[in-house]
Amino acid sequence: MFRRTSHYCSLHAQNFLGAFGRLLRQPIGSAMTVTVIAIALALPAGLRVLLNNFETLSGSWAGAIDFSVYLNMEIEESRARELATELEGRDDVTQVVFVPREAALEEFQSYSGFGDALDALEQNPLPHALIVRPAVDSRDQIEELAEDLSELAETDLVQVDTAWVERMRSMLLLIARIVDLATVLLALAVVLVIGNTIRLEINNRRTEIEVVKLVGGSDAFIRRPFLYMGLCYGLSGAMLAMLTILLSLFTLAGPVRSLAGLYGSSFALRGLTPEQALWLLGTGAVLGWAGAGIATARHLRAIEPT
Amino acid sequence: MIRFENVHKRYPSGRDALSGVSFEMQKGEMAFLTGPSGAGKSTLLKLIALIERPTRGTVLVHNQNTSRIRRRQIPYFRRRIGIVFQDHKLLNDRTIFDNVALPLVIAALRRRDIERRVRAALDQVGLLGREMHSPLTLSAGEQQRVGIARAVASRPDLVIADEPTGNLDPGLSLEIMQLFERFNKVGVTMLIATHDLDLLDRLDHRRLRLDSGKIARVTADV
Question: What is the structure's pLDDT at A17?
């Protein structure tokens, strides 16, 4: 029993290696097919990775919406600092950062692009500000906190925008749906590309298939190398897709970091998680096998020795 | 071993290849199928290998009514028959070893057994030592011998050959026929289609003469 099983396994291993060998023997043709598959896999997978990154980003924003509390112009720096400490004592506040008006001006000058215009002003138009990070995350509690803050005597204006986070979330949901749709269509494309490649391969090996049928090869025996070939195409495509995604993320990492820096965030792009990588490989393998399965089911039966 | 009972074969084109053919071959027998081109020799062999199905009548092989063999069972049925073709149908992108090993690989023999049997088969046709070459490096006669080695490698008890010497000169043809005789001596049933009558005069086996799809004459062993 064991011997039979191990024999069976070694036959499959031979088929698998043989299929890879065949791919390598036609390097240019195989490379083109694998690239097409890789692009079709990398597009949805890459979009999904980006989407995950945005979701993390919007999640972290929604969890920590900072209030900008602009104080009245006449408030002195010492009072502002006191107020910061007082507010930090509240249960529903995590952290309060005091932004002196000079620092605010400096930052505004360097990042806003209005540097020259601001230089023309005689005095700093900006007030002291407090950046308040709430410790609560339900909408009601956040609104309550906002109200408290605006009722303070020192407060000129409290700025908090939750609506855009909601808007962005529903937009992300829409984009996620579009990516789902693209995933299905591109998966179909992968199946068709592999199916067509296997169909051509079957035609090329027509004589061989006839001979194998004449010496008693069963349908399963004849089908197997083609199925493994589909599997190899799918797996190679998935690996190349992974490489493409990693390279793209690598290229994007720098610009994203400086963009995040502009918003005072330490956000960095996350690549494929190991689970996502396994998913990608698995999907490639399954689609390859499926494409080859369809091609063999349609075309092998038609080849009979005459 | 083989029995045809009133077998008719009409191709979709409407041509009658065989009409009312009946004959029988015993186990261990060697016989020649003769007749002009188009007489139905190939069709008769194709019916034995289930490459074609009879339009009417019964074909029994290995005491098995071939009409009861379903498509899925055909591969297993064919594994018990060795087939030699006029154009030997070798795979030129594989070595001689791999060509002869093909039926054994299909039958899922173990590597060690495959190697042993391929060597034995190549030894019998006198080509031992050339295993790793391509069939293209061989002469026509040698290629046909590889085809024969492949047909006998799985040790079938029935071998059918369709014009195996069709492309060979008389000397090589005789060699091939003598090779068949050797296999027959160890008990393999042999049915060989040929139109090479000069060659047959030098061999004494039963002859079935087909003409226009009918058995015209049966010549008993001399």
Answer: 82
Closest CA to A69 of A148, A185, A139, A7: A148
Six-digit token string for A247:
């390279």
CB contact under 8 A, A221 and B103: no
CB contact under 8 A, A217 and B108: no
From CA B178, how far away is CA B197, in angstroms rounded? Answer: 15
Beta-carbon separation of B75 and A218 below 8 A? yes
Residue B188: pLDDT band with limits 50, 70, 90: very high
Q: Does A305 contact B108 at a Cβ distance shorter than 8 Å?
A: no
Tokens of B47: 């019916």
Residue B14: which region, alpha, beta or left (left: phi > 0; alpha: psi -120 to 50)? left
pLDDT of residue A59: 62
Q: What is the side-by-side strand order in the sheet with B214-219?
A: B81-84, B158-162, B189-193, B30-34, B206-211, B214-219
Q: How many CA atoms lie within 13 A of A75 on its CB side?
A: 26
Which residues in B lie closer than 8 A to residue A219 (C-beta atoms)? 72, 75
Pairs of residues, one from chain A and one from chain B, whose beta carbons lie less than 8 Å apart: 51
Question: Which candidate, A69, A64, A86, A66, places its Cα nearest to that of A130?
Answer: A69
Q: Could you tell me which residues come within 8 angstroms of residue B163 by beta carbon, excluding any fewer than 6 positions away?
A: B41, B42, B86, B193, B194, B195
What pTM was computed for the model? 0.75
What are residue A212's DSSP bridge partners? Answer: none
Q: What ipTM was assigned to the predicted interfaces of this complex? A: 0.90
Could you tell me if A264 and A275 are in contact, meaning their C-beta atoms sit under 8 angstroms apart? no
For residue B110, which residues of chain A lie inside 8 Å, CB to CB?
A: 7
Q: Could you tell me which chain A residue has the CA closest to the CA of B150?
A: A215
pLDDT beneath 70: ranges in chain A: 1-4, 58-65, 112-113, 115, 137-139, 161-162
* Residues B174 and B182 sit within 8 Å (Cβ to Cβ): no
Closest CA to B130 of B143, B116, B117: B143
- Alpha-carbon gap, residue A298 to A301, rounded angstroms: 7
pLDDT digits over A239-298, tens only?
Answer: 999 999 999 999 988 888 888 888 777 777 888 888 989 999 999 999 999 999 999 998
Structure tokens at B221: 């062993």
Closest chain B residue to the Cα of A9, Cα to Cα: B108
Widest CA span of chain B, in angstroms?
49
By C-alpha distance, which of B145, B105, B153 is closest to B127?
B145
Q: Would you call B2 helix, strand, or coil by DSSP? A: strand
